[in-house]
Amino acid sequence: MTETGMTGGTPQAPSTGRGGRSRSRTTRRRRAALVTVLCALLTALGLGGATSAAATDAAAAAADASKPAIRGGNVLHSTSGSCVVAVNAARGEQRYGVMAGHCGGLGTVWYADAGLRRPVAVGESVGHPSRQYVVIRYTSTEFAYPSELVGDSVTGPVRVTGVRSPAPGLAVCHRTATIGLRCGTITAVNQTVNLPQGTLTGLFRASLCAEPGDTLIGTPAHSGSQIVGFLLAASGNCRTGGTTFHQPLAPILAAHNLTVAY
């Protein structure tokens, strides 16, 4: 019996068309060997891993860019109310947010929507001793958490490039819901404010204005692209002038080993 590729029941090499296919296989083997050698050389030089890491970072950035983002200045919701994210931060690959201390506590679940259907974070740490801030840990992969603050429709988000300690005379700005960007200067540091819910210490005072119902507690204050703090108390208004008191962010980030500008 004779079958394709066999003669008299003995396996035979298929026809090579005058050796053309054989030469083609030899060429492919040589090319594959050359590629293997080049890859080994790049790895030995430390370039192969770097290229792979760069490609991985680029892919991760592209994936994040396609997701809806939660930024500093956005509002999250819980069963006990709504609060502003002052700033996003990172520890390694994990993303966190910082909020004012009245915003829940350990284990509080935060949602992206007021209907409480899309959980995004959980309360992880509370500032001691005065509970002036809370650190939340982002848990949802549905969203991106860039090192940015909410901006306007023209200029877009504000990229956070670092954190700055408050000092008298430093220009700072914050964004309100209806008025938009308001700017002023820091007039004093290490301030104490007595409120019905407790005494707040270590704050900085600024000549920013805040309107009741328009500027939320926790609203971030920044100097250019550097984050400085977030709003905790205010007096006056934006018509006759006002005074605002803010929690500095530098000590919070340092205490929890968190970074911005990632």
Overall CATH class of the largest domain = Mainly Beta
Task: Please report the total strand number as a whole number.
Answer: 18
From the N-terminal CA to the C-terminal CA, the straight-line distance is 72 Å
The tally of domains stands at 3
* Secondary-structure element order, N to C: EEHHEEEEEEEEEEEEEEEEH
| Share of helical residues | 10-25%
Q: At the third CATH level, what is the topology name of the largest domain?
A: Thrombin, subunit H
The backbone outline, from C-alpha atoms, is globular
CATH superfamily of the largest domain: Trypsin-like serine proteases
How many H/I helical runs? 3
CATH architecture of the largest domain: Beta Barrel
Could you say which structural class the secondary elements and strand pairing correspond to? Answer: alpha+beta
Strand content: 35-45%
Unreliable stretches, pLDDT < 50, 5 or more residues? 1-25
Sheet with the most strands? 7 strands, mixed
- Average of pLDDT: 83
Radius of gyration: 29 Å
GO molecular function: serine-type endopeptidase activity
GO biological process, one term: proteolysis
Protein name: Streptogrisin B
Region (Disordered): 1-29
What does the model show?
The protein is 19% helix and 40% strand. With 262 residues, it is an alpha+beta fold. It folds into 3 domains: 47 residues; 64 residues, Beta Barrel (Thrombin, subunit H); 108 residues, Beta Barrel (Thrombin, subunit H). Strand 13 and strand 14 form a beta hairpin. The relative contact order is 0.13.
